Amino acid sequence: MDNQEKEKEKEIEKENFGDVEKAEDSESEDENQKQQAKTWGKLHSLNPKFLDFELNTIDKVTMGRSRKCQYRIRDKRISSYHCEIYRIVDESSDSKPFIIKLKDLSENGTYVNGSLVGKGNEEVILLHGDDISFIYTRKPKSPPPVANFIFKDYSIVPKDRQTESKLYEFYDVQRVLGVGNYATVKLGTDKKTGEKYAIKMIDKEKYVPNQTKVERDRLMDEINILKKIRHPSVVSAKDIFDSPNILYLVIDFYLIEFKEKGRYNEEESRIVFEKIASAIQYLHRKGIVHRDLKPENILLVSKDSDIDIKIVDFGLSRIITQTDKFNTFAGTLQYLAPEVIDNKTGYGKECDIWSCGVILYILLCGYMPFSSDSRPSLARQITRCELDFPNEIFEDVSVAAKNLIRRCLVIDPKKRITADQILEHPWIKGRPEEIQSEYQDVPDQK
């Protein structure tokens, strides 16, 4: 081969090699674009000193003071490696294939929704709307956190739902249904299906760190719970839209409240109460305690000749474990359990069952079981369970129905009937003859 041919071959080789490099670069750019499209979440900073951060890495994101962290926070109070946020495959879910977790690596503290995670704890699952803060305490007059973020889960709120205009693209927003401390609720209609929904418009500025945390904590809990539940007798969130200033929750909408009907006959009461108990069983199995069950929060939906219900208003609801106890006074006095009023050792999900007993009493007779113009007197009636069934009102009510009320209204929460047991009670099962006395299986109240 002469020199001229060798030079030509080198040129061809160089050309080919150059094409390969170019192709690899192009492929690399495509991969980068695909990777950017796989953004699975966002950290929205509530502190103007720090930027928002898109979560789009395949493995994990480390936050801290070190240069090696993907998100660097230059503050001497922040640990070199303060926390990790990562996602793992959830093979049990088709609709949401990943679980997103946070691991605390710091000595000074990482907090989720105001609760300390604890160094090395990997069991904190992040949900859309969760508040992540560094070096913070809930104590009164405590300074704001060094850094504070709201976590956005793009599998819950897709990126195309991140602007206010998208809400109006999918829904016709109409008249105001109600106004609260931090939210306005409007009637909305799905443009495709014509279905009506309640659109809760939450003002984010009402729960920034420099203001009260009570409403913000309630809001975060309510959002997490509405996303978590799917039951025919419990209201849920159909859609969520996010914008810089407003968070929009599209939830089930119903107009008729059963409190307007007054007294139900026994068969109607049984149908309604079975649905309530089924919903409470579902919530309790999910670790959710409603804490404000009352007729105003149970909506009646009439479909043809059927009776359906929806439990609503999860503003006071919380998610707890089997061993957790509440210590805050929450709810409406007429429906509160004795342990909530006394609050000596804390209380748990059993408080919902007491409220169910009060509601069943109202269903059957149209009156409250405990009533007084004086709050101290009313509280005494409840804590002593001064319960009566006046003959002129309850003469047509079966012994089995009154027995179920008594088993719900037991002072000792450990001896109170559970939601599972309510659904197996003879009155619910249509076998009232099995109950011979209204006191059958009712624990001693002393």
From TrEMBL:
Region entry Disordered, spans: 1-39
Keyword presence, Kinase: yes
Domain FHA: start-end pairs: 61-117
Keywords for the protein's UniProt record, in alphabetical order: ATP-binding, Kinase, Nucleotide-binding, Serine/threonine-protein kinase, Transferase
Biased composition range(s): Basic and acidic residues: 1-25
GO molecular function, one term: protein serine/threonine kinase activity
Database matches in Pfam families: FHA, Pkinase
Residues annotated as binding ATP: 200
Domain Protein kinase, first and last residues per copy: 171-428
Family: Belongs to the protein kinase superfamily.
Protein name according to UniProt: Serine/threonine-protein kinase
Lineage: Eukaryota, Metamonada, Anaeramoebidae, Anaeramoeba
